[in-house]
Amino acid sequence: MSRKTYASALEAVLAPMGFIRRVKDYAPHEPQWFRMIGDIQESVGLQRSMDLGTTCNLWTRDTALTALHQAAIPWDPQAGTWSVACRIGALMGDGMTDHWWKNDPSGPDEVAAAVREHAEGYFARYRTPEDQARNMYGRYTEGRRNPGTAVALALTLYRLGELDEALRVLEPRAKLTPPDWVRRMDSVQAWLQARRDEVG
């Protein structure tokens, strides 16, 4: 009998949940599974390391937010195309933020069981703009945010109809903000200001 693989174990869990498997030519041993929930793209993927073994990552991306990034920063073709990621180990509650399986016959079953137990709850935290503002971008968290988070939060607040708060998120700027991010923040700020001017 052939040994169960990580991919087959995950397929058995993810297919009934509506995920479709895709394999990239440049990474045939790291398949990913995708599904759409409204505008939200959710994905699960294997990651392999010769030194560490195998682990599993979960990603979520709001395609409506991506569209706003691209409208507000039209000169940057990569604007908003990234996903928010989490390692399965961070969800397992065993005190580890990272968990790799190496030369472990029970590894495929353990990874699949962890995904079955934790994936739906993880994805559910990020499905609405309100949830994203709170759980993903730290709307109610004190302190300065990194530029990428500030831009995403500002555009998410715009979706929620909170234009004044969205503009406040982009100020003040940290002195060491990289120039390319200063340009992105300026672009989003100008775009948001134009939207406010449109509504008077």
What count of structural domains? 2
What is the CA-based Rg, rounded?
19 Å
Low-confidence stretches: none
Per the principal axes of the C-alpha atoms, what is the gross shape? elongated
Decide which structural class fits the backbone: alpha+beta
Terminal CA distance reads 70 Å
Percentage of residues in strands: 15-25%
Q: How many E strands?
A: 5
Largest sheet: 5 strands, antiparallel
What are the salient characteristics of this protein?
200 residues; alpha+beta; 2 domains; five-stranded antiparallel beta sheet; 7 helices; 20% strand
Structure description:
- The chain has 2 domains: 6-124; 129-198.
- The chain is elongated.
- The longest helix is centred in the last third of the chain and has 20 residues, at 179-198.
- Strands 1-2-3-4-5 form a 5-stranded antiparallel beta sheet.
- The protein contains 7 helices and 5 strands; from the N terminus they run αββββαβααααα.
- Helix 4 (129-136) packs antiparallel against helix 5 (147-159) and helix 5 packs parallel to helix 7.
- It has helices spanning 6-14, 63-72, 107-124, 129-136, 147-159, 163-169, 179-198, and strands spanning 20-24, 27-37, 40-49, 53-62, 84-87.
- By secondary structure, it is of the alpha+beta class.
Set down the secondary structure blueprint:
Layout: H1 6-14, E1 20-24, E2 27-37, E3 40-49, E4 53-62, H2 63-72, E5 84-87, H3 107-124, H4 129-136, H5 147-159, H6 163-169, H7 179-198
